[in-house]
Design brief:
This protein is an all-alpha fold and 392 residues long. Helix content is 76%, strand content 0%. The chain has a single domain, classed as Growth Hormone, Chain: A (Up-down Bundle). The radius of gyration is 20 Å and the shape is globular. The two termini are 33 Å apart.
């Protein structure tokens, strides 16, 4: 019996949209270098990088209900416009003050609206038996920009400086908006309000289902470690006169390669083993940064960490969708993605302070400890999620 179709027009269009949104974000991994140049220290930079996730985290819990009230397409368009507006103002920042905080919060709001609405649509149009594979493709669009955007951005900065670089993020936001307007067309039922009463996010299943809550905890801790690297590794590279793009290129290529070849296993019975082993690999990559005193070793650490991070979000996301009832699915999805944002908020903020007072080595060790805790939690909940299989 043939597999249900995955690559529909709607699926391809939405994934192109997600790709452009994350190209926009990938350029901004170089923001710490700019902030350092105008006088910010590592703890302040950590707060500024993390505050982007604050808006994501605050708004996402209520999006499950708002999606049905306003419509998915309308939210995607609104998110694109807000992302464009925020991206256009980064070049106006010439000192550390209220403006950069406002820009980061507004940017986070725009991306939250765009991505949660997009993932909600994907959850509806991807065949249930191919959810892991479908979200794997979607999250490839989130990772792929890391393979080229920092490289392009660094080249532009070195050649023409930040004044020209600041045209790149709004440019990609414009492309994302054009994709929604010209390429992606919603299926007839995607923008219809639900006739059912959508429960409050406070009553979402993730709070009453211990396994869902455990999955969210694993996701939060994993993203706390990885978000810290994404936000602060440019500072480390600058402090060693290294190229941050060598890390991001190796990290993203590792994830892309592994997801392309192993994404088909994300819906099979070895999901537990894949996540369990990958977390340990990520920890190894974090500790490799302790000896990353050259571009080659920095790239090696990125390669290992990519191999550790590649399956976590798509597998956990698919499990959440499968365990969700139809009435609660959008609330559960919004809260699950909010757990990623909480990691993005706390990770750079906490480890920015660690770097300032204790140095980079304790940052790398601390991030490894945080992700090790996620492995311990996964080991406990995995036995309940997959009781029929031997776990490691």
């Amino acid at each position: 019996m043939p597999k249900p179709t995955l690559y529909s027009r709607e699926f391809v269009g939405l994934n192109l949209f997600i790709l452009m949104i994350f190209v926009n974000l990938a350029f901004l991994v170089l923001l710490p270098s700019y902030l350092s140049g105008i006088g910010a220290n590592s703890s302040v930079i950590g707060i500024i990088m993390g505050i982007y996730a604050f808006a994501n985290f605050i708004v996402k819990p209520v999006l499950g209900k708002v999606i049905y009230q306003i419509g998915r397409r309308n939210l995607i368009l609104a998110g694109s416009l807000i992302t464009l507006a925020a991206s256009s103002f980064y070049g106006q920042v010439d000192h550390i003050g209220a403006l950069i905080i406002i820009i980061r919060i507004v940017h986070g709001l725009g991306v939250a609206l765009a991505i949660v609405s997009s993932l909600s649509v994907l959850g509806k149009i991807v065949p249930p038996t191919r959810l892991g594979e479908g979200f794997n493709v979607a999250t490839l669009g989130m990772i792929l920009p890391m393979s080229f955007a920092p490289v392009i951005g660094e080249a532009v900065i070195n050649r023409w400086g930040f004044p020209i670089f600041w045209w790149l993020p709004p440019g990609t936001a414009i492309l994302s908006l054009l994709i929604v307007l010209l390429i992606w067309r919603p299926t007839p039922d995607e923008d219809q309000n639900s006739p059912q009463l959508i429960p409050s996010w406070l009553k979402a299943e993730v709070f009453s289902d211990p396994l869902m809550f455990g999955i969210m905890a694993v996701n939060f801790l994993s993203f706390m470690g990885q978000a810290s690297m994404n936000s602060l590794i440019a500072l480390y590279a600058d402090s060693r006169s290294l190229s941050p793009s060598s890390y991001f290129l190796a990290f993203s290529i590792s994830i892309i390669f592994l997801r392309l070849f192993f994404g088909k296993f994300f819906d099979r019975d070895i999901q537990y083993q894949i996540v369990a082993c990958s977390i340990l690999v990520w920890i190894l990559g974090s500790l490799t940064l302790l000896i990353a005193d050259s571009n080659l070793r920095l790239a090696l650490a990125g390669l290992i960490m990519g191999a550790g991070f590649f399956p976590i979000f798509p597998i956990l996301n698919a499990i959440i969708i499968r365990r969700s009832s139809k009435q609660h699915s959008d609330n559960n999805l919004s809260l699950f993605t909010a757990s990623s944002d909480l990691g993005f908020l706390l990770g750079p903020t906490i480890f920015g302070v660690v770097i300032r007072y204790w140095g980079y080595n304790w940052f790398f060790i601390g991030a490894a400890v945080v992700v090790l805790l996620s492995r311990i939690i996964w080991g406990s909940f995995g036995r309940k999620l997959f009781p029929q299989h031997e776990v490691v």
